[in-house]
Design brief:
Length: 391
């Protein structure tokens, strides 16, 4: 099999890239390790930045997001029983939209399949050959058989544990890592959510109340990294949420059936550069952010936009100039996104290593934000439009 661009991974990075390339008349084949059901059911991110919303709409695929997604105008941060309310449209002119990542993925997969374009599920890429040549070959396993996809470019969109980053020759990439000594327990519950996205810094640890619809809450609690979902009974989860949210009367947070739970480790990771020869990395394959800034998916989409634009410039002009600048063009934005995500993580979590002095600084920062419109605007701006890129 032969194509212009071999895309490894049908997560947000790979799927957006496939659709963006198609709009420019460029062919691609998407190879995805998992089944369609698995890819469409994986519960993850929920917050779409302005640039991500625009990209889905510009592709003509945003109809369900606009209908079913929830506009989030407020970002609240709580500490010491006080609430800082950030009015996102008032401070920035834009809002974010809450629409589950699996819904975005479902819409993109559905459109790809309807348009009859190649997207192969249960195809595990095991090796990428010849990335320094003009004809790389992607070796994958499908139904017990080894197959080869020939292409001009390989887009490694296969997430943190994929094969693409590992296919870079030794010495090409430098990595930068920050591991956090805590994780997030995330649950979905059949319960009416709070009206604003609410992050809290409590002595017991961080918590976050988000939502998926008018009747589904998405809730998170900071837990030790070794914790397991089965250690948490429903009653313990609700007790801890009421406590951390300063919901003393237990009236603010509505309880309901918890029907999904998972634990995600927090880490920041950057690999640079994002390209070598004819292999280009995008999304979680090349950088990971702690979820406190709600940026991972948005960053993956911004990478895909720049990569699609650079590949289109190559195929229309035969000049590599723009393609060669792909990584450099992404890195400044990537570092700013990591910086914001690390800032929000540092501001809102309890750290074992914090001294009373560190804790005092953290709570004073929140107090300062509560009184400074300039500080509020800085956070709001980064929350709604850090991933803006020119197409
Ligand atoms: P993905 O989604 O991991 O997709 C990679 C795909 O590659 C496939 N794959 C392979 N395919 C073929 N051959 C192989 N050898 C392969 N190896 C892997 C995988 O099966 C998969 O389908 O990466 P992508 O596309 O870069 O997208 C990144 C996002 O998924 C991620 O950054 C976000 O989910 C992060 N994130 C959030 N991002 C936001 O923008 N806003 C949020 O509100 C937000 N909340 C979150 C989050 C991540 C979380 N977790 C679970 C870490 C909340 C949480 C709890
Ligand atoms: C979510 O709704 O899943 C969500 C919201 C905000 C975050 C992370 C995840 O920072």
């Amino acid at each position: 099999m032969k194509t212009q661009v071999a895309i490894i991974g049908a997560g947000p990075a790979g799927l957006f890239l496939a659709h963006l390339l198609k709009r420019q008349g460029i062919e691609s084949v998407v190879l995805e390790l998992r089944s369609r059901e698995y890819a469409e059911g994986r519960v993850r991110a929920g917050v779409l930045e302005a640039g991500t919303i625009d990209t889905l709409n510009n592709l003509g695929l945003g109809e369900r997001m606009m209908r079913e997604g929830l506009v989030d105008n407020g970002l609240d941060m709580r500490f010491n029983g006080r609430t800082i309310h950030l009015d996102l449209p008032g401070l920035t002119g834009r809002s974010v939209r809450i629409y589950g990542q699996q819904e975005v993925v479902r819409d993109l997969i559905g459109a790809r399949v309807n348009e009859g374009d190649p997207l192969i599920f249960e195809a595990e890429v095991v090796r990428i050959e010849g990335i320094e040549t003009s004809a790389p070959r992607v070796h994958y396993k499908q139904g017990g058989e080894m197959k080869v996809l020939e292409c001009a470019f390989v887009a490694g969109c296969d997430g943190f544990h994929g094969v693409s980053r590992a296919s870079m020759p030794e010495g090409v990439i430098t990595t930068y890592t920050r591991a956090y000594n805590f994780a997030w327990l995330g649950v979905l519950a059949k319960a009416a959510p709070m009206s604003d996205m609410t992050y809290v810094n409590h002595d017991n640890g961080f918590a976050l109340c988000s939502r998926r619809s008018a009747s589904i809450s998405r809730l998170y609690l900071q837990v030790p990294p070794s914790d397991r979902p089965e250690n948490w009974t429903d009653a313990r989860i609700w007790d801890e949420l009421h406590t951390r949210m300063f919901d003393d009367g237990r009236t603010e947070i509505q309880e309901g059936e918890i029907f999904q739970r998972d634990i995600a480790q927090l880490r920041a990771f950057i690999a640079s550069p994002m390209q070598h020869g004819n292999l280009f990395l995008a999304g979680d394959a090349v950088h990971i952010v702690p979820p406190t800034g709600a940026k991972g998916l948005n960053m993956a989409v911004a990478d895909a936009r720049i990569l699609a634009r650079s590949m289109a410039a190559y195929f229309s002009s035969n000049s590599r100039a723009e393609l060669d600048r792909y990584s450099a063009e992404c890195m400044a934005r990537v570092w700013k996104t990591i910086r914001f995500s690390a800032y929000m993580t540092g501001l809102l979590h309890r750290f074992d290593e914090h001294s009373p002095f560190d804790r005092g600084m953290q709570l004073t920062e929140l107090d300062f934000i509560s009184q400074s419109e300039a500080a509020q605007r800085a956070i709001a701006e980064q929350y709604v439009k850090l991933s803006d890129v020119a197409d």
